[in-house]
Amino acid sequence: MTSTGFRRTVVAIGVCSSLALAATACGSGDDSSASGKTRITVNCEPPRSAKLDRAFFEDDVAAFEKRNPDIDVVAHDAFPCQDPKTFDAKLAGGQMEDVFYTYFTDARHVVDVRQAADLTPYLGRLKSYGSIQKQLRDIYTVDGKVYGVPRTGYSMGLIYNRALFRKAGLDPDRPPATWDEVRAAARKIAALGGGTVGYADYSAQNQGGWHFTAELYSRGGDVVGADGRKAAVDSPEGRAVLRNLHDMRWTDDSMGSRQLLVINDAQQLMGAGRLGMYLAAPDNIPILVKEKGGDYKDLALAPMPGGRGTLIGGDGYMFNKHDTPAQIRAGLKWLDHMFLTPAKGFLGDYARARKNDAPVGLPEPRLFTGAADATDQQAKKAAANVPVENYRSFLEGNTRLRMRIEPPHAQQIYSVLDAAVSAVLTKKDADIDQLLEEASGKIDSILARS
C-alpha cells in the first residue's frame, strides 16, 4: 500500500491506458523522434486537476529538455501513478513506458516476469545513486543487478494530538514508546469524554491487514517466513497485536464503539480534534490540516511503538526491457534532474513549494544519506513552514528501528488479516488463537498458488 491510504485507487493510466495501442505508444525501444533526438516516454505526470503539481512537473521537464536538447521527454499522466488492476496486463502486453513508476512491492515481480532493463552497466551516469539510502536501493537490486531507482520512501509512525495529550495530563513532548504506553495514554484520553477516542485503528478494505502488519513488525514479528512459503502470523507477536486491540476496545473502551474504520474515518476524527492517536505516515499531516480541519501546531509524529521495526513503503522508476542504451542513459539523466538531486527538482524545490503554500518541513520522504542528505535537510529547514519540532521524536526514533517492506502478495494477505482485526474489534468473545490459525491457513494457500 501507499502511505496515504496507499493511493491504490483505480485510476486511468492516461495516454497508454489501452492495451490495444501499438508498442510505439509506450515503451518501444525506438529511441528516435522526428527531430532525431532520443525520445523517452515516462509516466506519473500529475493530472490536469492537480494544477499546481502539474505546472511544477511541466516546468521541470521543460528545464530538463532545455539543458539536454538532444532528449525529448513524452510524459503520460496517471496519478495515482499505477493502477493495480492494469499494471500486470500492461507488463504482459509490453505496453509500459520507457521509464515507468512502480511501488517497492512491485519491483521483484517486474524482474521475475522479465520486463525490466538491467541498469547496472549505466549507474555511473546517475550522479546521485551512491547517496541514496542502501535499504531503498536494495529493493530494486536482484541477484546483484540493479533494475530500478528509488524516488521516495516513507515509514509508519504514531500521529498524535498534542492538545488532547495536554488536556489528559500527558506530556506531548514524551509520546508513547511502547504499546503498553499507547494503551495507558489512550485510556486517559478517552476518559476526557465528549466522544473523544483514545486510539483508532483500521479494520476494513484491506487496511486492517496493513496495520496488523505494521504493528506486527513493530513487535519484531513477521507475516511470512524467511523462505516466503509459509505464514508466520500465528506467533506470540501476532497474538500480542490482536490481544492489545481487543483489550483496548473491550476492557478499556478507549477505541470507541464505532469500528470497521478506514483511513478517512481516522483522519476525520483527528482533524476534528476528537482522536488521540493513530498509525500513519508523515504525509497524512497536511491532509489532516488542508482537508480535515486540523492545525499543524496540534499534530505531532512519534516513531512506531514497540521499538523493533517499522513498515516502510515508497516508489521508484524502472526501465522497459526494450529500451535502447541511449534511452536508458537519457532516462537516468531525467531521474537525476526530476527527483534525485538534493534540494532541487519536482520533489526537492522547497522554496518553490513554500512560495505556493505547500507544506515544507515534514520528516519524510528522506531519500539520501551523508552530504546529500545534509544538503537536502538544510534546504528543507530553511524553507520550513510547519512546526518541525513536533516531528523530532519520529526522526530520532526511526534510526533505531528495522525498516521492513510489505509482505509478498500484500493485498491478498491484507484481505485475510482484515477478518482477524475486524473480529477482535467487533466481537468481545473473539477467539484470537482460532483467528490466527485460520489466517495462517489462508495465507499459506495464497503463497502456494504463487
From TrEMBL:
<dbReference type="InterPro" id="IPR050490">
    <property type="entry name" value="Bact_solute-bd_prot1"/>
</dbReference>
<feature type="signal peptide">
    <location>
        <begin position="1"/>
        <end position="22"/>
    </location>
</feature>
<dbReference type="Pfam" id="PF01547">
    <property type="entry name" value="SBP_bac_1"/>
</dbReference>
<protein>
    <submittedName>
        <fullName>Extracellular solute-binding protein</fullName>
    </submittedName>
</protein>
<dbReference type="InterPro" id="IPR006059">
    <property type="entry name" value="SBP"/>
</dbReference>
<keyword id="KW-0732">Signal</keyword>
